[in-house]
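Q: Sequence in, structure out?
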Amino acid sequence: MANLKQLFADAEPVELRGRQVMVRSVALRNFDLYGRSASALVEVLASASVQKINHYAATHTGELKKMLRVTTNLSWFALWRLSASDAVRLAAEVVRVNSGFFAEALPDLARALNGAPLSSD
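A: Exactly. Output:
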């Protein structure tokens, strides 16, 4: 049987101000939301300036909250209470966790596209 471990990745715990938050891999139904929010966040963090951070806050806060809701175990109320810096820090963890997942899955995808079978258990 093909190795499907990567398709059903376990949630990864991260600590945020002494609280354990579970970060889940992004589901296909939320992939576009994740892509928009994560790419905008990475762009801001790559060349952070007050102007870029303010622009990100003005244009992506709603997406950020939605992304965190579907990729963490935090409730809407807990997300509403997060400080902006904690929300960005948590979003960076979501990107890190999901980047690791994609890094594991991409070699199998490349092999499959080249006609090789997926690795077996």
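The CA atoms of residues 68 and 91 lie 7 Å apart.
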